[in-house]
Hints:
The structure holds 2 protein chains of 2 kinds. Chain A is of the alpha/beta class. Chain A has helices at 31-35, 38-62, 89-102, 124-129, 203-214, 269-280, 286-298, and strands at residues 20-29, 73-79, 109-112, 152-154, 156-157, 176-177, 188-190, 192-195, 198-201, 219-220, 223-224, 229-230, 245-247, 257-265, 311-316. Chain B has 2 domains: 22-236, no CATH class; 257-351, no CATH class. Chain B has helices at 42-48, 125-129, 143-152, 162-174, 240-266, 273-286, 302-310, 314-351, and strands at residues 22-33, 58-60, 66-68, 72-81, 87-101, 105-115, 134-137, 190-199, 209-214, 219-227. In chain B, strand 4 (72-81) and strand 5 form a beta hairpin. The chains are: A alpha/beta, B alpha+beta.
Amino acid sequence: MDTSFHEVSAERRTQDVAYSHLSVELDHLYMEDFLLGKDHLRKRIKQIAPWYRTAITAFTERHSDGNRSAPRISTCFLVDDYFSDLIPPSELIPQLQEAADAEKLRIDYLARESACAVSDGVELARLVAGRLVSIPVPGTNGSRPPTAESGWLSNGQRTPGEPAAALRPRPWQPPVEAEAKTHSIFLDVELWDERDGKRRWSCPMLAAVWQLLRLGLLRDHGRTVIQPRPLPAELPGEWAAMPPVVQLNPRATSFHGYRTLSLLDDRFLPIEHAVRVILNQVAQDGEVMERVEQRARKEGVPVPADVISRIAYVFMTDF
Amino acid sequence: MRTQSVPGYPPAARRQPGSPDLGVAIGEIRTGLLRHSAALPKSAVAELIDLVPGEPVRQSERPIAHALSADVANGVDCQICTSAGGRIRAVGTVLTHAAVVGGRVLQTSTYTRIDSAGAQRRLPWSHYTAQPGFIETIAKAGPRDLAAGYINHGQQADCLDLGAISERLARRTQNSPLLDGRQPLRIQWTRLRWTALYGSALGSPPEPAAQFVLEDDTVRSLALWIPQPPDAEDDALRLEPILELCRDLALHDWVLTTVTRRLERVDPGFADRDQAVAELRPLIDHLLHLWMPGARVADGLAPIWEAFERRPGFTRQWEAAVGRVRDQLALHTLQLLATLSVRDASHRDAGG
């Protein structure tokens, strides 16, 4: 006799998502930047356009073997509505689209930064924070709990604390970067602060979530956390009323990419350094990682085994 | 202890490119009673061991209530032992989870696989976080050598300490406000250190094999050999059945140890039978129903349980122990009845 017995609550299913070969982020602007007017916005888009074309050419050359069709590339833009929401979607989105059209740049997806904190009721930032595994310095054998400062994450070992009432102060000991080549570049990143009992995530933390979202590596109870939706026929007056990610171009390839490229102003250099310190220490979902790897390999575009190596940047200076 | 051969087993093992065909995993499990006066309901159990946001606590009802948390990763960079007593450096992440059985028993288990191909240097941390649950040796080493080193040398200072991580999770869980702190039985925790060699290698026995050792009152060790075909279709690592087997053995060893210790205290010749019953009653209320050897163990690994059932015969000893608990109760009942009938008779005599 052949019988079978299952309990759904005892299983965990992992949902797959589709991937483009590359997800390109076209600049990032603070809300205040939009206040500088249409001309400023146009100038910014104009500045990134040649870098975008160069990057796409380089990527296509690198990842084509002559016969294969052009790589699937989707573009996205992240609106900073988390720290301020000065300009409503009904004003900002047409402005942005107009500027992009003028420079023949196509924005496929538009995402809200606050969705990196909470998207459709799922606290994405908390999900990522819950997977952080501190980088160990040599000698870490598990016998002591990892030294965690609530809300902070460093890339090594902090300067040891001094007891408040120390009679003979110890000489200063430097912090240590765990992966220092010869000398340390120690970085301590604030992940969040609390205001009136409410947690406010930091910009690097949200940007780390943003990278993981684009790489299609986040799941909530095995389910995908981002489903791009079409642009509402009537644009709302509040960002909170917008879907987390909207698809502006109906013919766009998938929002998620095997790799990401971000074209950013150089003022974001320290932010992205912090983002990499965070991403370096996120324990990935082993099953999701394996599926992405298999899928990419089958398509003939193998992805690097680690997440940091899937992320590329162009930092632009007004020169 | 050898076991008979098992058709259909084993599940596939994922192997890192360049690493030998033989995988090795090590772990340490703590088993004890939850600090709570009654069996914890399903929803409270789910909350108690909700360790990773966005990851489910996996719960099942048959044949016994069982809950398993998601894994939490910890980073390590330290020495591990080789069988000759030498040490080599290993870097990576180890995983820890908690299980609650029957709403009563808490198990915290820390484990890792060892890739001993020898990376020659510590790699960027994102390499290790990409595949949690692996540590990689800096110098090349033999899987058998590392398995033997872990199990034979116990906990060495400065070496990888999986037990401490399990211990911390156990303490943290026991301090949860979800528990009322009133434990019906004061009993010791047990520690199981285990190692598993799995895969295929020339000269390895074709059947699974296991060795279970009672090291002292509370420490046990288990060494497993699990043959797996070299060209497994499913590339994904399926360590889960091995972890399940280890937890199941740890659980039953703990229940058996607890019941036999308690019996030793009341038997033989416990003058005050009321007190004897008072000692044994919590066993009946809280532990006896937990005995379900191998119930959750994968078919392919069941022969290991079966072999342990032949020798030393866990269930044989268990049934003997349960028999003695019931005998004590029966004697107590008889004594009560006798007292009653004497009282009854004297009452009748007085009244008649």
